[in-house]
Design goal:
The structure is a homodimer of 367-residue chains. Helix content of chain A is 33%, strand content 20%. A 7-stranded mixed β-sheet of chain A has the order 2-3-4-5-6-1-14. In chain A, helix 4 crosses helix 5 and helix 4 crosses helix 11. At the A-B interface, helix 1, strand 2, strand 3, strand 4 and helix 3 of A face helix 1, strand 2, strand 3, strand 4 and helix 3 of B.
Chain lengths: 367, 367
C-alpha cells in the first residue's frame, strides 16, 4: 500500500518554475490559460461562493478570507488569503499573503499545496490582461497607475504583454512606494514618470488605460476625483476587496461599461457596490465568450471591476503545480493521516503504512 | 534575512506524537485542554462562523467544507474537511479526510499545517467526553453505539476515560462494520456485543449512555425509533453535519435537555434543526462554565448535539503542533513566496533569500 501523497511546492520550487519559463512566458501562458478556461466556463458546472472571512484589529486592521472553488473538473481549490496592510512597513512582508490547497472532489484528498502570494499577484495581472485585450483600445500607449505596491508590478507586467505601452504615469499616497516603482518594473522597458497629488487629475486625463491598485480603507471613497478622461479610457480597478472599499468615482462608472470579474462578489466588495443591477455590464466570462459583440466598447469608457475570483486562483494553481511537476520540482508529503483501516483512526499507530493505495487507483487523482 | 517558515507535520510525525504520549494520555490531555479552553471561552473575543461548503455528486455524493476560527489569541485556524461516505468502500480511506492550517492573525503568516483526519476523530471524542462528564450519570456502565465507523472508535475511547463502562452494545446498518468494531476498540478493555436491527430498541432501552455516529443521509430521519429509555439516558449525537441530517427522534429530544456544541451551527445542521429556540438548552461552553448548575440534569435525559466545532479543531491542532515541536518532529517548510522586497513579487527571482526575517521579530509567531 502506498500513501496518497500531496505535492508541496516551496518557494525555491516556485522560483525554479518562474526562472525556467521566464516571467514573460509565465504570464503569457497564464493569460492564455485563463482565457481558455473562461471561454468554456459554464456557471452551472461550478460552485464558487463569494469569499468570506474574519476581520480583526490585532493589533492593526487585518483580515483572513477563504476563497473556495469547486470547478466541476473533479477538483476543489480552497485559497486562504490574508490582507494585512501594515505588513510591508511593520513586518517586511507583502500585504497579501496566501496559500492554495487543491483537493480531489471525488474523495477529498489534498492534491497539492502551493503559495498563493505570488500566484495572486500573477493571476490578478493575467485577469486584467484578459479584460484589457477585449475592452481597451489596442493602440493604448499611456498607462496610469494609482497605487504602486506589489500588485502594480504584475499589473504593469501583464498589461505590457497585451498593449504597446510607451509611458507609465504613477502615483501613490506614499511617495517612497511611487519612487521605487520604476526600478521594480524596469524589466518591462517602459519609462515610469512619478507624479504628486497635484497631478492626479492630469494622470487620469492623459491615460489610455488606468490601473487602480491601492490599499485604500473601506469608507474612504474613490482614490481619484472625477474629471475629464480620454473617450476610450479603460480602467482596471483591482483594489476593491472589502465591503465599503472602492476606488473609482461613481460618476465615471456611470459613464462607462462596467464589467465585473464575478458579479456576485463584485456587488458585495467591488466597484459594483456603487451601482444598481441594471448598470452592471457583462462579466469576464461573458466578455471572453462574446468578445466580438463588445468591440465597440473599445471606443468608450470601460471599467474592469476586478475583485479577485477563485476561478483565476484555480487556473494559476493548476498551472503552477503542472509546471513544477514537469520540472521535477516539489516534495511529495504525507500530510493526511490515512490509516490502513479507514474505520480505525488508531490503526495509524500499528503500521508504518499510513494509507491506502486503492485510493489512487480508484480515483483519478492527478499531479 | 531568514524566511518565516511553516511547521508541516506528516503522518509519521503525528504517529510519533501519539506513540510517545500514548493514546490514553493524548485523549486525556485533549479533553482537559478543551475543558480549560471552554472555561475561559468568551464569544465576544472570537469569530467562528458556521461552516460552509460545496456539495456535489462526483461521481457519488460528497462535500468539502471550510471551518474557520479566529480565536482571539492572535491566531486563526482554517480547517478544510471532506465528507465522502463512499470512501471506505470505494477508496479504502476514511469518510472524513481533513487538513488544518493555522495562521498568525497579526500578519497572515501560515504557522502550521497538520492532518485533520485523526484530529477530527480525536477532538470529537474529547468533546463528547467533556459533555458526558457534565451531563451523564457518573455511574453509567452500558454504552450503546449506533454507527460503527471511524468516529465510533474515538467516541468509545474518550467515553471510556470518563465513565466506568462495563459493556458496549453496538449496531450498524452494515453488519461488517459492526462485526469489526470489537477488534478496533479492544484496547479499551470493555466487551462489545453486536446486535441486529431487531434489537435496536433494546440497545437504546438498556443504555446509560448512547452514541449515534452514522453516515445516515439527509432526509432519512432518525437512526432509531423513539421508545423507552433509562430515565438518566445521556446521548452524544455526533453524526449530524448537514442540513436535513439528524439521528435522534424529536420526541426524545423534547423529553430531554439538548445541549449543542455551537448553537449557530447546530440549528443549521444538528439535532437542534428539529427544535425551536426555546427548546434548546445551554451550549457546551455554558455547561463547562456553569457545570454545577446542571448537576440535576444527570438524573434526566440529556442530549449533546455535537456538530463539530472549529474551536475544538483549534485546540486539537495547537496541542498536536506543540507536542510535535517538543518531540522535535515536523519539517519547517517555506510554502509562502515572500519576496525580499514586499512591494515586488518578482524580487523572489533575484535572490535565494525568499522572505523577511523582520516578520518573526515584529510578530509573536509561535510554533
Amino acid at each position: 500500500m502506498s500513501a496518497p501523497l500531496s505535492l508541496l511546492l516551496e518557494a525555491p520550487d516556485v522560483r525554479a518554475v518562474l526562472s525556467h519559463l521566464g516571467r514573460d512566458r509565465f504570464i503569457d501562458l497564464l493569460t492564455a490559460r485563463l482565457t481558455e478556461t473562461l471561454r468554456t466556463f459554464a456557471p452551472e458546472q461550478v460552485q464558487i461562493p463569494p469569499r468570506a472571512g474574519v476581520q480583526y484589529a490585532n493589533p492593526s486592521f487585518g483580515l483572513l478570507e477563504w476563497m473556495p472553488a469547486y470547478v466541476g473538473a473533479g477538483e476543489t481549490l480552497v485559497k486562504v488569503v490574508g490582507y494585512h496592510p501594515t505588513n510591508p512597513e511593520v513586518r517586511g512582508v507583502p500585504t497579501v499573503i496566501s496559500t492554495m490547497c487543491l483537493y480531489d472532489a471525488t474523495g477529498g484528498h489534498l492534491i497539492g499545496i502551493v503559495d498563493g502570494t505570488l500566484l495572486t499577484a500573477l493571476r490578478t495581472g493575467a485577469a486584467s490582461a484578459v479584460a484589457t485585450r477585449i475592452l481597451a483600445s489596442p493602440h493604448s500607449r499611456v498607462l496610469g497607475v494609482i497605487g504602486c505596491g506589489a500588485q502594480a508590478v504584475t499589473q504593469i507586467h501583464a498589461l505590457s504583454r497585451v498593449l504597446p505601452l510607451e509611458r507609465i504615469v504613477a502615483y501613490d499616497v506614499r511617495p517612497d512606494a511611487a519612487r521605487s516603482l520604476a526600478a521594480r518594473v524596469s524589466f518591462v522597458g517602459v519609462p515610469v514618470e512619478v507624479v504628486g497629488p497635484e497631478k492626479l487629475g492630469d494622470l487620469v486625463a492623459g491615460a489610455d488605460v488606468l490601473c487602480t491598485c491601492t490599499s485604500s480603507a473601506p469608507g474612504a471613497g474613490p482614490v481619484f476625483p472625477d474629471g475629464p478622461t480620454r473617450p476610450h479610457l479603460h480602467v482596471n480597478a483591482i483594489g476593491s476587496d472589502l465591503p465599503g472599499k472602492f476606488e473609482v468615482p461613481v460618476e465615471l462608472l456611470r459613464r462607462g461599461l462596467v464589467c465585473p470579474d464575478f458579479r456576485e462578489q463584485a456587488v458585495l466588495e467591488g466597484e459594483c457596490q456603487q451601482l444598481t443591477a441594471e448598470d452592471i455590464g457583462p462579466d469576464l466570462a461573458a466578455l471572453v465568450q462574446q468578445g466580438h459583440t463588445f468591440e465597440a466598447a473599445r471606443e468608450r469608457i470601460t471599467v474592469f471591476d476586478s475583485t479577485g475570483w477563485a476561478l483565476e486562483d484555480y487556473v494559476a494553481t493548476r498551472m503552477m503545480l503542472e509546471c513544477a511537476r514537469e520540472l521535477g520540482r516539489g516534495r511529495r508529503v504525507a500530510v493526511e493521516c490515512l490509516p490502513p483501516d479507514p474505520k480505525d483512526p488508531y490503526s495509524l499507530l500499528e503500521s508504518a503504512e499510513s494509507a491506502a493505495g486503492s485510493y489512487l487507483s480508484a480515483g483519478r487523482v492527478r499531479v
